[in-house]
Design goal:
84 residues; mainly beta; Immunoglobulin-like; rod-shaped
Length: 84
């Protein structure tokens, strides 16, 4: 699961990465540990349904899919003037 939140039309995605590596040879033993975290924020277009946003990871890459917002529907309004 990828922690994410939407507030005021800003999507924030965060995560962390940990990696351990060990190399044994005849005369030595080497261990490496790397770790880190990230957080990215991006503005969403007006009208995006936040509950429809999807994310997945593959090969260390986070892919976020944001559906396009629906086009606002135009309405025709008839105004009848009155003499006053």
């Amino acid at each position: 699961m990828i922690p994410a939140e939407v507030e005021d039309d800003i999507l924030t995605v965060s995560g962390s990465h940990e990696e351990s590596k060990e190399e044994k040879e005849k005369d030595y033993l080497r261990r490496e540990r790397r770790y880190g975290s990230f957080q990215r924020s991006m503005a969403l277009p007006a009208g995006v349904d936040a509950s429809a946003i999807k994310a997945k990871t593959h090969d260390g890459v986070v892919e976020v899919v944001v559906p396009l917002p629906k086009e606002p529907q135009k309405r025709t309004v008839t105004i009848t003037p009155k003499a006053g």
